[in-house]
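Running this now, will post back.
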Amino acid sequence: MSRIAATIEQARQSGGKLLIPYLVAGDPDLATSAKLMHELVDCGADILELGIPFSDPSSDGPVIQRGVERALARGTTLRDVLALVQEFRQRDDHTPIVLMGYLNPIEIMGQEAFVAAAVDSGVDGVLIVDMPPAEAGELHRRLQAAQVDTIFLVAPTTTRDRVNDIVQHCSGYLYYVSLKGVTGAVLSDYDSVAENISNLRSLCDLPIVVGFGINDAASAQAMARAADGIVIGSALVGRIGTLDERAEPADLKHCTEVIRAARVAINDIK
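Update: finished.
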């Protein structure tokens, strides 16, 4: 059983909800990213989404864009991201890691080389924002053969036919984008999100996690009631923006407090 499958099964058996923080690899630097990854697990993270820095993060809002810029300013590459995962695995061999990013860096590296390096590093899943199922083709087959989950996004505007196509390719979990727009926007219409997730369940047997617009304990709890898990990105990345290579352990704990608070809130769901 893969790490993602084992984590999902454990949550299912306990009646719990998945908590998935997102951070940009190399923001503010790779050493701090490594410390943050372990700190997030200590805060109760079930799965880590690790952003691959890319110069044109078109689906991301200004907070994550600035995080990407900080990582790129340090010269962070896709190979550095994979090395970071490998370093993390020296201390943690059970927490799933999903790489999230855009197709261009993977194409530059080469699909075959990327998949091989991802497996060697200990990557469990890949979510490529700008790779629709119709174009996933060979990369999806390579990842599938390597037993690395291919995770896809579904948005409020996604048609039923397109959802059916996505779920045929998706594995691990389905990522539901809670609102129209980019990361960091404010989510207020919880009822429509819950309704859309309910509709998705009739088309998909996979766990459904929801992201975009979840920025505190209250919104985390509200969305976790409707979904199998939640993703918190901008609220964490914004705090990471206050760190540098001189960050002390107390600074990291302050930075990740939003994740710890979200864990408490979703554990309190009755």
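Strands lie at 18-24, 48-51, 97-101, 125-128, 149-151, 153-154, 174-177, 208-211, 229-232. More later if anyone needs it.
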